[in-house]
Amino acid sequence: MSHRGTPLVEMRDISIAFGGIKAVDHVTIDLYPGEVVGLLGHNGAGKSTLIKCLSGAYQMDSGAIYINGEKAEIRNPRDARAYNIETIYQTLALADNLDAASNLFLGRELVTPFGFVDDAQMEAETRKIMGRLNPNFRKFKEPVKALSGGQRQSVAIARAVYFNAKILIMDEPTAALGPHETQMVAELIEELKAQGLGIFLIEHDIHNVMRLCDRASVMKNGQLVGTVNVKDVTDEDILGMIILGKKPEGVAC
Amino acid sequence: MNTPTPQDGGQKRTLLQSLELDTRLLGMIGAFVVICLVFNVITDGRFLTPRNIFNLSIQTVSVAIMATGMVFVIVTRHIDLSVGAVLAICSSVMGVMQVQLLPQLFGIGHPLVMPLTVLAGLLTGAAIGALNGWLVGYQRIPAFIVTLGGLLIWRNVGWYLTDGQTVGPLDQTFMLFGGVEGTVGSALSWGLAIVFSVLAVFGLWRARQAKIHHEFPVKPLWAEGALMATSVAAILGFVAILNSYAIPVGRLKREFESRGEVMPEGYVDYFGLPISVLMLVVIVVVMTLVARKTRLGRYIFAAGGNPDAAELSGINTRMLTVKIFTLMGVLCAISAMVAQARLANHTNDIGSLDELRVIAAAVIGGTALAGGIGTIYGAVLGAVIMQSLQSGMAMVGVDAPFQNIVVGGVLVLAVWIDIQYRKRTGEKV
Ligand SMILES: Nc1ncnc2c1ncn2[C@@H]1O[C@H](COP(=O)(O)OP(=O)(O)OP(=O)(O)O)[C@@H](O)[C@H]1O
Ligand SMILES: [Mg+2]
């Protein structure tokens, strides 16, 4: 291992099954500060399920999670937030009937001295952060169901990065984005990485993986195929891991 | 929050856009005005007399109070079929307290009777509501089933508490919640009308200042002024009407006699605002604040729009369900106070079929059963519209079965119009 110090996140020997299906089967992955780890695999490989154990959406059946070397009990999304874990879900997890600001601050509303939600302040903050992420975004007053897929995705990304996360989980964050917006998210990832965040990035586009990730962990049928340093392998190697489920010869992780 | 305001994309704004008014609300007010005018014509002007408006107001309060809570229940994709039964058991508890238990302890007419009775009622409502919420939120039993069970259970538990007997006469202070017995008189009514008017103007002005502070677009000054003027006119107008309903001479004479005085010749006095209507006003203001300006309200609408998203955002949706149903139970207890005091005793069939009226009021008022959408004022307006229809038809002499047919038809029609409206405004239904 080329890394020094304690990892930011260690997920050890995680398993979770739905009925008879072993969605995640004894998977171990880790993440260091200032690092982007790509999670790859075919559809249904178990990527989303694995990270949902970290974000508190699912409870793992067995295994353990360590944050900064200490065992972490993550029973629900509130616990995960307490560890500064922020998540962009594949399904975006937005309340369609609320506007962008209400979604961005959902569960963490800004309040006035009287304890009432401060909508004006939240909208102002939302305008600021959206100005950085997606300057074309205008629909601040509409419920998010009136937004396009990409606009909704921008809102979900804004929510995850606004609250000074230390650990960021991004489940296919650019799936609905146009080329320009994808580029902006790529720059955002570099910037957050430079700030020392650890990022799990689930991504199907192999070029984005080669460009953005430091390491890549590949899953197949719920099991971990292996983890590789991205600069030690070619995209062919990674594709081989995804499709054949075999680790390339002579590559350390 | 849940009605999208049209963006001004550079083109000229229409009158309605400048006012930024909720067109849905306008439609409902329009329907209400039409109903009133039609009945007024048919009854040769008897429908819009101060006396009838007074009666309509106090008859609407009980259902309207519960309808505000039903909005939250339905917005979170639940339903509460037990509100009428919970009202009945709260009423029976309060009846037994003030007629049997407390007078034995303190004596009839003791000043502690009313507050302790109310406390017992509120606790009963809160406890049953919390139980419902726990069964729905933590045990995952569908609200439809839990409250359908409650519909059968609670009224009949109340029956055992009172042996099915009518309980009365009620405590004199408690009777003030009912309406006719409890009005604040014309002087205080005017005072309150002025206070409410000032608050309304102040609220609108503050909202405008907040927008300006954050450099958001505001509506033109004339539109803001028109809105303020309309609110003030509505408040003052309503109070003026109630203040012109004179207390019958016979009753005034009795009141003077009971004080050992003689009524001066030509003396007149007016009812003014009923205490129950004031309670409704306070509840509507508080519930609207909760819905729009508190975290609880935000979570209610978020959980209704997307329960999974709410949970993933760190909202404890199970506890939220307990809170919503507890609030519903407390509102049932308050409605029980009003209904019981208005009828002057507790009977076992008090609040029968109220669950249907309350749900209908919320739905006519624009609360979507699919969740995530609804307003407090809409539900109250829904209750007012239904009560006007029913009273108007009774006044005209329409027989009871046909009244129900009409109310049922209106319910379906209202929802259909709502769907058409949302289609036109481009909202998905
Ligand atoms: N809540 C659930 N209930 C039952 N089965 C589930 C549930 N969530 C996931 N699964 C199953 O677990 C397996 C892994 O699903 P998961 O969503 O983790 O895949 P994924 O790797 O994220 O795929 P994709 O690339 O399509 O997003 C699948 O077989 C899926 O059907
Ligand atoms: Mg997935």
Automatic annotation (TrEMBL), chain A:
Membrane topology term reads:
Peripheral membrane protein
Q: Which UniProt keywords apply?
A: ATP-binding, Cell membrane, Membrane, Nucleotide-binding, Repeat, Sugar transport, Translocase, Transport
Superkingdom of origin organism: Bacteria
**SUPFAM superfamilies, per this entry?**
P-loop containing nucleoside triphosphate hydrolases
**GO cellular component: a single term:** plasma membrane
Q: Which Pfam families match?
A: ABC_tran (PF00005)
Which terms in the Gene Ontology molecular function aspect does this entry carry?
ATP binding; ATP hydrolysis activity
Specify where it is mainly localized.
Answer: membrane
* Domain ABC transporter per the UniProt entry, residue ranges: 9-246
InterPro entries hit by this protein: AAA+_ATPase (IPR003593), ABC_carbohydrate_import_ATPase (IPR050107), ABC_transporter-like_ATP-bd (IPR003439), P-loop_NTPase (IPR027417)
Give compartment(s).
Cell membrane
Q: What is this protein called?
A: Monosaccharide ABC transporter ATP-binding protein (CUT2 family)
Q: Which organism is it from?
A: Rhodobacter viridis
UniProtKB/TrEMBL annotation, chain B:
Q: How does it sit in the membrane?
A: Multi-pass membrane protein
GO CC, any one term:
plasma membrane
Q: Name one GO molecular function term.
A: transmembrane transporter activity
Which Pfam families does UniProt cross-reference here?
BPD_transp_2
Keywords linked to the UniProt accession: Cell inner membrane, Cell membrane, Membrane, Sugar transport, Transmembrane, Transmembrane helix, Transport
Give the chief site where it resides: membrane
Localization: Cell membrane
- Cleavable signal peptide: none
Q: Which residues cross the membrane?
A: 21-42, 54-74, 81-101, 113-136, 143-162, 182-205, 226-247, 267-291, 320-339, 359-384, 396-417
* Physiological role: Part of the binding-protein-dependent transport system for D-xylose. Probably responsible for the translocation of the substrate across the membrane.
How is this protein named in the record? Xylose transport system permease protein XylH
Upper classification of the source organism reads:
Bacteria, Pseudomonadati, Pseudomonadota, Alphaproteobacteria, Rhodobacterales
